[in-house]
Amino acid sequence: MAYDPVVDLSSSRVVVTGAAGGIGAALARRFHSDGASVVVSDTNADGIRTVAAALEADRPGSAFAVVADVSTENGNRSLVDESRRLLSGIDLFVANAGVGLGTVIETTTENDWMRSFDVNLHAHRWAAAALLPEWLQRGSGYFCSTASAAGLLAQIGSAPYSVSKHAAVAFAEWLSITYGDRGIRVSCLCPQGVNTAMLNGGEIGDNGAGDVVRAAGDVLEPEQVADVVAAAIADERFLILPHPQVAEFEAKKVADRDRWLSGMRRLQRRVLGDL
């Protein structure tokens, strides 16, 4: 089936979740600078209103803030409905919101497990379920999800983060396989260390995982990640790796999993000591 490219950012309508700061805000700014109209969404109302106001000042009528809790199905459906109303349709949806909760199994609460899956995985499928009927009818749409290098490798220090991010990658793969021949493009962002609140003293930074991420390689700025994402979407690439070494690590994992696991245990001992 032949079809024209879906996303021309100079005229596209984009929704970004988790956009009050970090990668989400940087993505919104980058897409907007390329000419897109954007909805920025988060539970942090002040944060997204600040982001939207700055974009609006640059180009009036092109940016909107929608407060939404994507950890629920209703929150995702309401976000999609309101974004369609504000933008007169959605061309690109970026499921970027994420949380990094919990540590080892012995101490992680059920609430942390459930919230991790609700935000890091279920939000993606709830949003896709709300978007797909219209996209399939018109034969076009672009879904980009933020997972993590932890979704390809593993996350030392946080069981819920590692497992839910693996699931996020698997869902994105399934979405591409199932709907790719019907005009639906899918990309999955898997960064390693990024200079965000999650890494620096918040969420995953509190359970030792942030130290592991810093030990594993360079920490990029959110704007650097946004540039890589914009280029990957223009090329319609599925896997977006702002840190190229992640592909090398994944290749080593696949080539000799036992050796890779042994190396990860050594890294854990070096950075975290005895858990």
Question: Which architecture name does CATH use?
Answer: 3-Layer(aba) Sandwich
- Indicate the structural class: alpha/beta
* Integer count of domains: 1
User: How many H/I helical runs?
Assistant: 9
**Which whole number gives the mean pLDDT?**
92
Largest sheet: 7 strands, parallel
Order of helices and strands: EHEHEHEHEHEEHEHEHH
Count of beta strands:
9
| pLDDT < 50 runs, ≥5 residues | 1-5
Strand content: 5-15%
The end-to-end span amounts to: 53 Å
Q: CATH H-level name... which superfamily? A: NAD(P)-binding Rossmann-like Domain
Shape, please? globular
CATH top-level class: Alpha Beta
- What is the CA-based Rg, rounded? 18 Å
In which range does the helix fraction lie?
40-55%
What is the oligomeric state here?
single chain
Structural overview:
With 275 residues, the chain is α/β, with parallel strands linked by helices. The protein is 51% helix and 14% strand. The chain contains nine helices and nine strands. Helix 3 runs parallel beside helix 4, helix 4 (110-138) runs parallel beside helix 5 and helix 8 packs across helix 9. The longest helix has 29 residues, at 110-138.
Question: What does the secondary structure layout of this molecule look like, with pairings?
Answer:
Layout: E1 13-17, H1 22-33, E2 37-42, H2 45-58, E3 63-67, H3 73-87, E4 92-95, H4 110-138, E5 141-146, H5 159-179, E6 184-189, E7 193-194, H6 209-216, E8 219-220, H7 222-235, E9 239-240, H8 245-255, H9 257-272
Parallel strand pairs: 1-2, 1-4, 2-3, 4-5, 5-6, 6-9, 7-8
Helix pairs in contact: 1-7, 3-4, 4-5, 8-9
